[in-house]
Write a structure and sequence with these properties.
Largest sheet: none
Shape: elongated
Helix content: 55-70%
Structural class: mainly alpha
Number of helices: 9
Order of helices and strands: HHHHHHHHH
Strand content: under 5%
C-alpha cells in the first residue's frame, strides 16, 4: 500500500510541476523533492524521466477519453462532432501544458498515424472516426478514408489551439471558441455529400 501511495504522490507532484511550469520542469530530482522522497526512490516507480512524462500524457488521455466516453452524443452528425470538438477544446484550454505534452512534444511510445490509429489504439480519435464512418455509411458524408478525415480534423484542432495558446491570436476565449467552431463547420461542409 505504501508503494502505491508513493506512486500517487509522485504522479501528483509531477502533474503539479507540469501544470505550473511545463514538461521541461518535470525532472526526477524536482518531482522527488516535491513528493517528499529521495531522488533515487522515484526510480522504483518510474525507470526514467521519459517513463514519467509518458505516464502523465497517458493520464491526460485517460481524462480526455473519460470526458468523451462518459457523454452520450445526440443530434445530427455535425452536432455530435462539434460536441466532441468542444470537449477536446475544453480539455486543452483547461490543461494547456498537459495538452502540449500529449500532442506537441515528441515522446517515445506515443501513438503514431496511421498504424496505431487505424488499429484503434487511440481511444479519443476512435470515437470521432466512428462518427465520421457512420456519416459516410449513411451517405451524409462523401466516401473517403474516415481515419484521414479524423486525423485532418485533429490537425485543424491542434493547429488552432497551438496558435491560441502560443499567443498568436489576439482574441478573448469566447471569440477563439467561436472561431474554432466556425472552422470545424467549414471543414465539415467540405466533406459533406
Amino acid at each position: 500500500m505504501a508503494s502505491r501511495d508513493t506512486g500517487r504522490k509522485i504522479a501528483t507532484a509531477a502533474r503539479r510541476l507540469l501544470d505550473r511550469e511545463g514538461a521541461e520542469a518535470v525532472s526526477m530530482r524536482r518531482v522527488a523533492e516535491a513528493a517528499g522522497i529521495t531522488a533515487m526512490a522515484i526510480y522504483r516507480h518510474y525507470p526514467s524521466r521519459d517513463a514519467l512524462l509518458n505516464a502523465l500524457a497517458d493520464a491526460g488521455f485517460g481524462e480526455l477519453s473519460s470526458s468523451l466516453g462518459g457523454r452520450r452524443f445526440t443530434g445530427d452528425l455535425e452536432t455530435r462532432l462539434l460536441k466532441m470538438a468542444d470537449l477536446y477544446l475544453d480539455h486543452a484550454l483547461g490543461n494547456p501544458r498537459l495538452f502540449e505534452l500529449m500532442f506537441l512534444k515528441p515522446r517515445h511510445g506515443a501513438r503514431r498515424y496511421p498504424h496505431d490509429f487505424k488499429a484503434r489504439r487511440s481511444p479519443t480519435a476512435t470515437l470521432m472516426a466512428d462518427v465520421i464512418a457512420e456519416g459516410m455509411a449513411s451517405g451524409e458524408l462523401r466516401q473517403d478514408d474516415a481515419w484521414e478525415i479524423t486525423f485532418e480534423m485533429g490537425a485543424l484542432s491542434h493547429g488552432l489551439i497551438m496558435l491560441y495558446l502560443g499567443g498568436r491570436m489576439d482574441m478573448a476565449p469566447a471569440a477563439f471558441r467561436a472561431l474554432y467552431r466556425r472552422s470545424f463547420r467549414r471543414y465539415f461542409d467540405g466533406i459533406r455529400n
